[in-house]
Structures are given as structure tokens and as C-alpha cells.
Design goal:
One of its GO terms (molecular function) is S-adenosylmethionine-dependent methyltransferase activity. By secondary structure, the protein is α/β, with parallel strands linked by helices. The chain has eleven helices and seven strands. The structure holds S-adenosylmethionine (SAM).
């Protein structure tokens, strides 16, 4: 396990509360054309509005809340290993008829054939054993059920990748990139033994005109280094990230970052 797959590190680090996730989502919302993943999931499921839904790694619960507000009427349960991150969802759970439970996606606390739909939105890259999750999802899905997955591509965020490479070269500090582990490209081999599936890939872009939005986004990765950095090491990293980004901007007045990912619809 590494810092991106160790549940203890995730729960005390980047998913202790909703703050880093909110910053990342706000950053991604600036990319054009804007991709609203909850809306993409709604579109994929528009003919399944009465099905029972499980959202694994549900985070703040926004996906289930969005589906409920858009006419989905089945039972809806969200599970996550972090209680902190589920707090916004829990606050509206009774009003929206949602349930939230603390559980891990590789050991689902549900019987066989329980759900019509399972959603895994940007979370499979945190699983130490993705094949085990596939088996668990298959077990809890009813025959003919759907598994909706969203993931980043290996080509996601090239400017971010460039900067973390520079930081590795300069200081030897390594950010563990979750998109390098499980991504649009390699998830297909985990799905193939169990599901038929189709992939919708998107590629959006954002013009980098000042350093601050990128740096705010970059700061949410403080806890994702192979080893914990001291405060002074982290300050050096931030200074270097800002310096390198400014130098890229000086060389290219039309500098763009890219958000590349997919929505995968898998059928049992
Ligand atoms: C990038 S966030 C995505 C949250 C939400 N699905 C979304 O798209 O906004 C990843 C989520 O997966 C959760 N997670 C990580 N490992 C998990 C596990 N083993 N079982 C369930 N959830 C997990 C994290 O706590 C976090 O809420």
C-alpha cells in the first residue's frame, strides 16, 4: 500500500474532511467545456430512475443528492472510509432519503443481488486490490445491474505532472500520482472478466493565466508525497512549483492545462 491506497493515511490526510476535495472540484470546474460528472452519470442512468443505488467512496454525497433531486426514486446508499468527508451528505440524509455508512469498497456490508446500480466516482485509484472491488460489486449487483465508473486518464493534468517531475528532480520528493496506478486505460482489464462496458472519454482545457489557481490546487496534494514533508520542505516545494509554472507561462503565452478522464458504463 502507498499513501494513495492506505486507508489510514487517506482518512487522516487528503479525505479527513471535504476541504481538499472542494478545492479540486472548483479547479476542475474552470475547465472548458465544463464536465459535470454527476450530470454525466444522470444521463447514463436516465432509463434506470427507479433502481436501488450504491455509491462506493461517495465522499460528500453530492452524486446521490444530485440524482435524488433529479427524480431518481430508488433506495440510495453511500459508503466511504472517511466519516469526516461524508458529513455534508449526512446532514441532508433524512430530507433526501439517503443512507451513509462507514465501510470499505473491498468489503461491502451488503448481501448478494442488493443493488441495480453501483457508482464508483473517482475512487478506484485508492483501492489496494481493484480486482477484489470488482468481485464485491458483482456480488452486490442484481443480474443485469450496472456499474458506473469515473476515472482520470494517464494523460490527465500534464502541467501538474511536469511540475511534480521537476520537484522530484530538484529535491527527490515524490508525489504518488493515483492516475498512474488505476486509470481510464488500465481499468478495462479489471472490468473485462466480469462486465461488458462502454467508455465515454472527455478532454477539457483551462488557460493558465495566473499561478494562484494552480498553486491552490497543488496545495491539496501536500499529504500525497511518498514520505511526509517537513513544513520547511513543503515551503520549498511550493516556491519551486510557483517558479516552474511562472517559467512555463513566460515561455508560452497560451499555456493550457488539460483534464482528461472518462465515464465508463459496465453491464453485468
Ligand atoms: C476523490 S474522492 C471522490 C469522492 C466522490 N466519489 C466524488 O467523486 O466527489 C475519493 C473518495 O474515496 C474514498 N475512499 C478511499 N478509499 C476507500 C475505500 N477503501 N472504500 C471506500 N471509500 C474509499 C475517500 O475517502 C474519498 O471520499
Amino acid at each position: 500500500m502507498n499513501v494513495q491506497t492506505d486507508p489510514k493515511k487517506l482518512v487522516t490526510g487528503q479525505y479527513k474532511d471535504t476541504k481538499p476535495l472542494n478545492i479540486r472540484q472548483a479547479y476542475n470546474d474552470q475547465f472548458k467545456p465544463r464536465i459535470d460528472l454527476d450530470e454525466e452519470i444522470r444521463k447514463v442512468l436516465q432509463n434506470d430512475k427507479t433502481g436501488d443505488i450504491l455509491d462506493i467512496g461517495c465522499g460528500n454525497g453530492n452524486t446521490l443528492i444530485y440524482l435524488r433531486k433529479n427524480g431518481f426514486s430508488g433506495k440510495m446508499i453511500g459508503i466511504d472510509i472517511s466519516d469526516g468527508i461524508m458529513q455534508p451528505g449526512k446532514k441532508v440524509a433524512s430530507e433526501c432519503h439517503l443512507e451513509f455508512q462507514n465501510a470499505s469498497a473491498d468489503n461491502l456490508p451488503f448481501g448478494e443481488n442488493t443493488f441495480d446500480i453501483v457508482i464508483a466516482r473517482h475512487m478506484l485509484y485508492h483501492m489496494p486490490d481493484v480486482a477484489k472491488v470488482m468481485q464485491e460489486v458483482k456480488r452486490v449487483l442484481k443480474p443485469g445491474g450496472k456499474f458506473i465508473i469515473t476515472l482520470n486518464s494517464m494523460d490527465n493534468k500534464p502541467i501538474f505532472n511536469h511540475i511534480i517531475q521537476k520537484i522530484k528532480e530538484k529535491f527527490g520528493f515524490v508525489i504518488v500520482r493515483n492516475a498512474n496506478v488505476i486509470n481510464t486505460e488500465n481499468i478495462q482489464r479489471f472490468l473485462a472478466p466480469h462486465f461488458s462496458f462502454s467508455v465515454y472519454e472527455f478532454r477539457t482545457s483551462y488557460p493558465i493565466e495566473s499561478t494562484s489557481p494552480f498553486i491552490e490546487y497543488f496545495k491539496t496534494y501536500q499529504t500525497t508525497f511518498e514520505r511526509e514533508l517537513t513544513e520547511s520542505e513543503w515551503r520549498d516545494v511550493l516556491t519551486e512549483a510557483e517558479r516552474e509554472l511562472s517559467s512555463l507561462m513566460a515561455k508560452d503565452s497560451n499555456l493550457h492545462e488539460y483534464n482528461v478522464g472518462s465515464v465508463i458504463t459496465a453491464n453485468l
